[in-house]
Amino acid sequence: MKLLTVILSAGLFSAVNGHYTFTNINGNRNVVRQPANNSPVTDVTSTQVRCNSNAQASDVLTVAAGSSLTFGLDNTFYHLGPAAVYMAKAPSSVTSWDGSGTVWFKVAEWGATFNPFSFKDYNLSGLQFTVPRSISAGQYLVRAEQIGLHVAGAPQFYVSCGQINVTGGGSANPSKVAIPGYISKSDPSITLNIYNPVPTAYRVPGPSVFSG
Predict the structure, then answer these.
(1) What is the pTM of this model?
(2) What is the mean pLDDT of the chain?
(3) Auxiliary Activity family 9 catalytic domain location, by residue (predicted)?
């Protein structure tokens, strides 16, 4: 309980002093569609929850299937909440694609810890994930997401999209979701009060992780 009080105090202090945003993949800012500012998206039904603002990125990062990547932050996660990384294969050039349609699959997630209650991404400065070895080669959008749950009933979505070109791989066809549409506005995983009562179980919202 003492740890939760410290985390809550830190979260309130940080909320007054700004937010954060995903800015780079493996240190490369030119492959990330930079948000207009560090404010969160607050409507899970908005198209902005997909990639944030309608920014463009000039470069595409080439990586081999099975590679480990880190979607980096300009700060550390100081709002309590889950995180996830999604991917979507572009039909042609990823630089001009908006990621619309039922095209997204989850490749990593960070949920809750208990006794004391917190989240696995708390205080991290980025999300490290593995590009699934079995997906097909091609250009992909990579979407990083952290959901701040520090205000009960008013989740804050911190999201950015990056652009990669996957080489190698296989022929796997993961189950897919649309964004928006992947999380309901009334999903208990984003509407709960994480302070009172303190949760004893938690499910990361969205689809299950594809680990192929």
Answers:
(1) 0.92
(2) 93
(3) 17-201
